[in-house]
Design brief:
Elements: H1 2-7, H2 10-31, H3 34-48, H4 52-86, H5 90-96, H6 98-107, H7 110-124, H8 129-139
Helix pairs in contact: 6-7, 7-8
Length: 149
């Protein structure tokens, strides 16, 4: 990157920085109007709905379908896979990681949950520290994009 800057003249670099500054200021100015614009778009779509009661009922059924699917997946399928692979009770595993699970729900942060997850896996489930210290950090940060350490 440094080589690219040295090939450009100081004037070109200054113009580029000023252009970026203008774009950032313009973006910041328009950001304040976003909630109004989004609310207007949503209100327009709601107003265009002919039978709001039917659409609300359909949306409710969709929500119920998703929740039932998640319960089946998390309550039946994943425990069955766990049992088939390990021949151990999935409920003992769930009780061992319960504190980490509750912390994750409360903080909504995978990085914030890591210390509790380490403790649950190492102390409650007796998983080797070498395994937890290698595997757990890999699972969290990739979802953070460019902000991960």
């Amino acid at each position: 990157m440094q080589q690219i800057w040295t090939l450009r003249t100081e004037k070109e670099r200054k113009q580029e920085e000023e252009g970026e500054s203008v774009l950032v200021k313009d973006t910041d100015r328009w950001k304040g109007y976003s909630p109004i614009g989004i609310a207007s778009l949503i209100a327009g779509k709601i107003a265009a709905i002919g039978d709001l009661e039917t659409v609300a009922r359909q949306l409710g059924m969709y929500m119920v379908t998703v929740i039932v699917g998640l319960v089946i997946h998390g309550g039946l399928i994943l425990p069955a896979i766990f049992f088939a692979i390990t021949r151990k009770s999935p409920f003992a595993f769930y009780s061992g990681i319960f504190q980490a699970w509750i912390t994750a729900l409360g903080t909504a942060s995978s990085a914030g949950t890591l210390p509790v997850t380490f403790r649950c896996l190492e102390e409650n489930l007796k998983i080797d520290k070498r395994v937890t210290r290698f595997v757990l950090p890999i699972g969290g940060p990739p979802s953070h994009g460019r902000h991960s350490p």
